[in-house]
Design brief:
Residues 3-52 form a coiled coil. With 98 residues, the chain is mostly helical. It is 86% helix and 0% strand. The longest helix has 84 residues, at 2-85.
Length: 98
C-alpha cells in the first residue's frame, strides 16, 4: 500500500512537471509571437524613417542645385548689365558681351 502511494505520488509529480513544462512552453510561444509582431512594427518604422531621411537628403540636394543655378543666372545678368553700363557709346544698343 505504501509503495502504491509512492508510485501514485511519483506519477502526480511527473504529471505536474509535464503540465508546468507545457504551460511554460505555451507562454514562451505566445511571448515569441508578440515579440515577432513588435519587431515587424519596429522594422516598418525604421524603414519609414530611413525613407524620410533619404527624401530630405534628396530635397537638400535639389535645393542646393537650384540655388547654384539661380546664382549663376544672377551673375550672368550682372555681367550683361555691366557690359551695357560700361559702354562708351551709349547711343547704340548692342547685345555683345564685353
Amino acid at each position: 500500500m505504501l509503495l502504491d502511494n509512492v508510485r501514485r505520488m511519483k506519477d502526480e509529480i511527473n504529471q505536474l512537471r509535464r503540465n508546468a513544462v507545457e504551460q511554460i512552453s505555451d507562454e514562451i510561444i505566445e511571448e515569441n509571437s508578440i515579440l515577432k509582431s513588435e519587431v515587424a512594427a519596429l522594422r516598418l518604422q525604421l524603414d519609414q524613417a530611413s525613407e524620410a531621411v533619404i527624401s530630405s537628403r534628396n530635397r537638400g540636394w535639389f535645393r542646393m542645385k537650384f540655388a547654384s543655378f539661380v546664382i549663376v543666372l544672377l551673375l550672368l545678368n550682372v555681367l550683361i548689365l555691366s557690359g551695357f553700363m560700361s559702354r562708351k557709346d551709349s547711343g547704340k544698343k548692342s547685345f555683345v558681351l564685353p
